[in-house]
UniProtKB/TrEMBL annotation:
This is Acetoacetate decarboxylase. It comes from the Eukaryota. Transmembrane segments: none annotated. GO terms for molecular function: lyase activity. It holds the Pfam family ADC. Coiled coil: none annotated. Signal peptide: none annotated.
Length: 180
């Protein structure tokens, strides 16, 4: 598995309309985008059904583009297929320490939504606190960025401008990489 994780601050006005009114936000909340390549697996059923922690199961098609002659990790997210919604890059420069906190995001508050099968009844909405611990054999930080391709009616949540970056990391496990 390989993960590119980029945390950044945005203006609350850009997401306030997407967040339930019960949740109070800072003026510049921290958001984290995770771009995940799961590798080859026979566990296709893991992508079906509901995700118990409130993460969307299928956000879009994540593409990693290896950079010839460079360690820069580049990629994009397509939604729908063939339309680039987000572009990202990260140049690994420094090894992150062995501390769990170096490679693990802070506690996350997700909003899990389960639509109602009866249009007359409301959907189930609940906050889910997630405090996961990850273990990776490779942990790197370095300069990086992401860009939201804004203006699509079907993805208004992607109309974001990054104010500042908080952290950028590439996390991976060699054991799950297979030679071609």
């Amino acid at each position: 598995m390989t993960i590119v994780a980029i945390s950044y601050r945005i203006q609350v006005s850009q997401i306030q309309h997407l967040v339930p009114q019960e949740l109070e936000l800072e003026d510049q909340p921290i958001m984290t985008s995770l771009f995940i390549h799961y590798g080859t697996s026979t566990a296709a059923p893991s992508s079906l059904g509901r995700e118990i922690f409130g993460y969307p199961k299928i956000f879009g098609k994540v593409n990693f583009h290896p950079s010839a002659g460079s360690r820069v990790m580049m990629g994009n997210v397509e939604r729908p297929a063939a339309r680039s919604l987000i572009e990202f890059e990260l140049a690994p420069k420094a090894i992150l320490g062995n501390s769990v906190g170096d490679a693990t995001p802070p506690k996350v508050l997700n909003l899990r939504v389960i639509p109602s099968t009866n249009p007359a009844e409301p959907a189930l909405r609940e906050f889910v606190v997630v405090d996961m611990q990850f273990e990776f054999s490779e942990r790197w930080s370095g300069p990086g960025s992401l860009k939201f391709n804004k203006g699509f009616a079907s993805t208004p949540w992607a109309n974001l401008d990054v104010d500042s970056y908080v952290s950028k990391a590439v996390l991976g496990n060699k054991a799950e990489r297979f030679p071609l």
